[in-house]
Amino acid sequence: MANMIVVGTQWGDEGKGKLIDILTEFADMVVRFQGGANAGHTLEVDGKQLITHLVPSGLLHEGKRIAIGPGVVLDPETLVSEIELAGEHGMLERGNEFLLSHRAHVVMPYHRALDAARESAKGKSKIGTTLRGIGPCLEDKVARTGIRVSDMIDKDILRRKLDARLPELNALLVHYGAEPVTAEDILPRQNELAEKIAPFVADVGEIVRKEMERGRSVLFEGAQGTLLDIDHGTYPFVTSSNTVSAAACTSVGFGPGKIDAVVGVTKAYTTRVGSGPFPTELDDADGQHLQKKGGEFGATTGRPRRCGWLDAVALRYTLALNGCTSLCLTKLDVLSGMEKIKVAVAYRLDGEEIHSLPADSQAIERIEPVYEEVDGWQEDIQEIREKDALPKPVLHYIKWLESLLNLPIDIVSVGPGRGETLMVQNPFRRG
Ligand code: IMP
Q: Which atom of ligand 1 is nearest to the CA of 135?
């Protein structure tokens, strides 16, 4: 069997949730490895929508170990409501085991307050964060002033850590014109939440290493997308964690040699929520088509997503960053009804043609994409289940992308439902 990492190759919202749900069938354990409640997985089950932010979307299966790894920043309010939601879906009755790393950092109410206060102080230059306190929580982690799950479930330690952290934190809140907080404000609710999460706390890294030793298959679920990576993304308009595949190794705690396959999830066009450069962004009828037909509204914030053409320059960069072994192409059905379909194959920057994404966000803002285009198709493809049954222009588009990106497309998604999927090759078997 094989171990696999699934990552988003754009700015998030590529449809990783649905893919993880499908691939979980072939894995023994699913581990979410970074991000926090800033992510949102939209799943469609029996025609109903199910949105999760923290619990991996493997929750709908049977007999799986489903874990939140040490690198995730965990909002206990969101987690508890998702554990309850998972309970409603019978997750724990179907022999699934839910595990929560004792090393994961906890998002406290003051992290959310600081995130919101900073964003409003930034005005026009705001990052457009999800306001879930992700940045401030990860700052505390790196500053060694964070609160981990193991601290949270011990009332005395939690009290001591809050007393140590709050004076400086309050100075920051006051600086931004927000209300300071006291340990008394926070403790009753946090202690209540701690009792609810305590039964799930475990040494997730150790369990993963043991599973690997026993030859069982582990699926690592990334959140956000590679262009939001703190080191490699469109800084400063990024999230505060590493979203690349290698983050699974560093955050969960195992060697890179254990990984057999890295699947990159790519939407058939591009979207972005929040601020920051977006070279192929559309402000015309094609953009409106993608927005409307794709239902492009953020799963976490409900904000309309910015839409644009696929960007092969940025994709070649992110596929290389992740060491992707194959691709999953999602939302291909959304392109039905378009006259022509464009893909950026190069950029023009200050009069020169370039073939890589500049590091500087201001330079990325000045980029003009160089497009190539193919004929679109009018047919609805949502009911099609075999690759060969796809209309000719669709097959041509898929082949064109494979050659532009130099990677095979193993899975094609043609609708939100689990069944609306064409598995050309099972990426687990490729590994
Ligand atoms: P933060 O992660 O809330 O700090 O937000 C930083 C940036 O990442 C903002 O542009 C957010 O819109 C974006 N972001 C964070 N999580 C997601 C996600 O799951 N999908 C898409 N964008 C995200």
A: 4
Residues constituting the chain: 431
Do 65 and 97 contact (CB within 8 A), yes or no?
A: yes
Catalytic residue among 21, 41, 75, 410: 41
Q: Report the percent of the chain where pLDDT is more than 70.
A: 99
Index of the ligand 1 atom closest to the CA of residue 129 = 5
Mean pLDDT of 355-383: 97
* CA proximity to 229, closest of 238, 237, 220: 238
Model's pTM, two decimal places? 0.96
Which protein residue's CA is at the shortest distance from atom 5 of ligand 1? 129
Catalytic site residue 396?
Answer: no
Distance 431 CA to ligand 1 centre (A): 30
Q: How far apart are CA 256 and CA 245, in angstroms?
A: 10
Active-site residue, 41 included: yes
The whole-number pLDDT of residue 331 equals 97
Q: Which residue ranges form the domains of the chain, and what is each CATH number?
A: 4-102+200-261 (3.40.440.10), 105-196 (1.10.300.10), 266-423 (3.90.170.10)
Sequence-distant (≥ 6) Cβ neighbours of residue 113 within 8 angstroms = 133, 173, 178, 179, 181
For the cut 90, the answer to whether the pLDDT of residue 74 exceeds it is: yes
Whether residue 41 contacts residue 51, with contact meaning beta carbons closer than 8 Å, is answered with: yes
Closest ligand 1 atom, residue 241 Cα: 2
Pocket test for ligand 1, best of 14, 141, 224 (most atoms within 8 A of CB): 224
Name all residues whose Cβ lies below 6 A of ligand 1: 11-13, 38-40, 127-130, 132, 134-135, 223-224, 228, 237, 239-240, 273-274
Amino acid at 430: R
